[in-house]
Write a structure and sequence with these properties.
- The protein has eight helices and six strands, in the order αβαβαβααβααβαβ.
- By secondary structure, it is α/β, with parallel strands linked by helices.
- A six-stranded parallel beta sheet has the order 3-2-4-5-1-6, with helices on both faces.
- β2, α3 and β3 form a beta-alpha-beta unit.
- The longest helix has 20 residues.
- The radius of gyration is 18 Å and the shape is globular.
- The termini are far apart.
Length: about 190
């Protein structure tokens, strides 16, 4: 009986960490759920005592979202850095500057070696819009992963560039099949924000 439990609960073994590695994960696609799934990973990781940080690229730093309330209760560090989505700002130069500033924070968090999981929400949009250069981002991520092989990095947003998909260990595509917005039902508190 105890032998079966040992196999079932591999993560409890002392050598578990030596037989695992940090993952580069991407949640992409045109369907709802990219951020929601990332928050689920944060909740799971925090529940296991992992040190986690969420950095949001596009959501407005002037707003509070449901994930802020929940994650802060779990001692997950949250940084919402955006000026609103680019269709709100209508100022590409401002969007690029905000993206660069937010990426600097991401680099600081990754290089600190204080975290087990970092989530960069909406960075894939930033890469798709070319506010940041995907090769430069991947180069920095690669250097950090070489130095910290157990660091998990999760990135979200639509239209993941091919280079990011190829570099990632796990890519999940959310596909819209049906969405209430098309029936005239707008974003709702607790569901979308």
């Amino acid at each position: 009986m105890s032998e079966a439990k040992e196999k079932r609960y591999k993560w409890r073994r002392e050598d578990y960490r030596e037989n695992t590695k940090g993952l580069l994960m991407v949640n992409t696609g045109d369907g709802k759920g990219k951020t929601t799934a990332a928050i689920g990973v944060l909740v799971r990781a925090a529940g296991r005592g992992m040190r986690c940080v969420l950095v949001q690229f596009m959501k407005s730093k002037n707003d509070r979202y449901g994930e802020h309330e929940s994650l802060e209760r779990l001692d997950v560090e949250v940084h919402t850095m955006g000026d609103g989505f680019t269709w709100d700002t209508k100022d590409p130069a401002q969007d690029v500057a905000t993206s660069e500033k937010t990426w600097e924070l991401c680099l600081e968090k990754m290089r600190s070696e204080e975290y087990d999981l970092v989530v960069f929400d909406e960075i894939v949009y930033v890469l798709d819009y070319k506010f940041l250069d995907v090769r430069s981002v991947l180069n920095e991520v690669s250097k950090i992963r070489d130095k910290q092989p157990h660091l998990h990095i999760l990135m979200t947003g639509r239209n993941a560039p091919t280079e990011l998909v190829e570099a990632a260990d796990l890519v999940t595509e959310m596909k819209e099949i049906k969405h209430p917005f098309h029936a005239g039902i707008y974003a709702q508190q607790g569901i979308e924000f």
